[in-house]
Structure formats: C-alpha cells, structure tokens
Amino acid sequence: MKIIVIPHSIWTKIPTRAEYFINHFKKNHEVHLITWSMPYPLKFKSIFQNINKSREKYSQKIDKNLFVHHVSRDWIFPPFNNNLFKKQIKEIIAEYGIDTIFSESFIFDFIPPFEDIPVFYDMVDDHLSFFKNASVSQKIIGKIGRVNKATMEQLKHSSKTFFVSSVLEELYEHYTSKSAVLPNGVDIKKYKNSEPDKYIEKYNLNNFDVVMGCVGYFGEWSNLYNLFNFSNKFLKENNGVMVIVGIGPEVDYLKQKFKDNKRLIFTGMLNSNEIPSIIKSFDIGLIPFIKYPYKDAASPIKYFEYAAAGISVISTPLEEVKRINFNNTIFCEDIKNISTSFKEAIDLNFDKSRLENELKSYDWNLISDKLLMDMKYYINGV
Question: In the prediction, which pLDDT does 322 show?
Fold first, then answer.
C-alpha cells in the first residue's frame, strides 16, 4: 500500500503515536508523511523568514519507503489554507498513486479531501474538551483553527474512525459510521533489552533508596509542581529522588522554584532510544496529570512504557487508566496525599508474569498490524 500520514502536529522526530505507526508501515509499505511550518512567532526580526518557510513546498525521500512532503501555507493565519492543502494532497495522490490517508489532524487547515480515496481518522485526544475548558487565549486559538469543525468533518466523512481510548469512543462514536478503539502501546522488545546501568551511574541513582520518575512533555495539565511540592518531605525522609525526563513550561517553573533541591534531577530531552533504559532505572513511574475531561480521555503512552519496564506506577484517577488498570498501579485520589501512595507503591508486590501477559495486546507491532488490516479491508472493498 501507499499511505499518506497527516500527523497530529508538525513533524519533529520526537516519538509520537504517528511516529510508531510510520516506523511499522514503512517496513512493507510506502509512506508519505505530510509536514508543514507555521509562521510563528510573528517577531520583527524573523517574521519574513518564518512566512517564507511556511510557504515552501517540496518533497523528498528520506528513507526506504518514506517520503516527506512539506506543504505550503500561503496564508499567515488559519483557516484560509484548507483549499490549498487539499489541492496539494490531491496532487500527491495523483503523482504517487496513493491508496489511503491516515489523518490525526485537529486543525481545519489540515483536514484531507474525502472524495478520492479512503480516509482513516485517528482521534488521539479530546480536542473539543480541551478547548472548551481552556483559557480565553487558548479558546481563541481553537476558534481560529476551527478545531470543532475539523474534528466533526473527519468523524462524519472518514471511512472509519479510530479512538485512542474507550472514553473517547463513548463520547464521539455516534458521529461516525464506523469506529473502533485503537489504544496507544509500547515496544515491548525495547524494554526487555534495555540496560539501566548507564543512567544509574550517570545520575548516581545508587545513592538513593527510592527513585521515582516522570517522562514526557509537561504542560500545565501535568501537575508537576504540585507533584514535587507534596513529595519533597517524603523524599527527604526516605532518601528518595525524583527524575524529570523531558521539557515543558512546568519543568521550567519547577526549576525556578526548586533549582537547588538535591531531591530533583532534570535530564532534559533524551533520545527515544534512551527512554526504555532510564525508565528501567526507576522504582516508581509517575502519571500525576490533573484529572479533568481532556485527560480522562487520554491514553498515556508512558503508562504502557512504565508497565513494560516492570515498575510500579502511581497515577491520578484518570478514567481511561482506571479502565486499563494494570496490576502495578496505585491510584492517588488527591495529590496532597501522594506520600501515602508512595508507601503503597514501594510495598506493592504485583504479579509480573500477569502484567507481561496483559501488556502483550498493547505491543505497537500488534496494534499497527490491526490498523493495516482495516486499511486493506476498505481499499480492497471486501
């Protein structure tokens, strides 16, 4: 098959759901990844350079079976680019003989044409809930990007919609003709082969009795400041340390407030190949997200990765995580009482064989194969 992939956001080579699918697809199929540039920030020194970059249009083969197509955005502000975007997608379809489109887009500028070939919509987040409950400035961004219209058009017109969680499916399946839950997953083999010793030595983790960690991008929903603020006393009393792997505004704020705290280690961004090994150096993996509809519908990739590393997990009671409920998980109802959850997680004696068996159905290879089977079904008209 020849597959166009429209990712959730600008392609940055940071591991995402789309990235895992692309790596699997390209083993036996030709993948055409769509990317673009935004003309922001609109600063005097860089405005013309950014605008010119966003108007560039080019295609290149960057790997076996992988093409990247940078589409032009002639207009600075959405939502004026959709017709141009669809025209460029149609040109790619015609030139390369594309069979299907896999779209994660949530901005109206980047929704695909539906009339030429089968389109599969991958709903990876509850975008409607996010912008509904967002700040005034974010709500304006959502309105400008026509997030509601982009979501609804793809739900209604796609051949099939895949929801990242059962919570999302319950909320939106009545808008679709056909749908299924396609959860996030984990590369189980990478975690089996991971070697944590390098990171234990690099960050002197053997000097601590309890090592806990968070991995990812940390926005305002991540609850990172409250997590450490209410963990600090426990860490001091139990010779513990918290490792923060990743970046984001909450990381910057935490550094500002606790920059000299010896119970915090910041690694910054790590290469995706390093993540399994550093996670395996933890005793406890943390998912401290604020509980609200947007995060209740999420399927945190790190939940599966912590499980694959065979470590205990403490999570706030996010609805989708509660439904999966691996046996290595402690739910913290109130972040102020996180110390109690730490004690429970340290004493938790879970059945690792049972966890490994449950995790098998969340292997990225298996999930990707299911997706490819669905695509072939529609393309072949079975």
Answer: 97
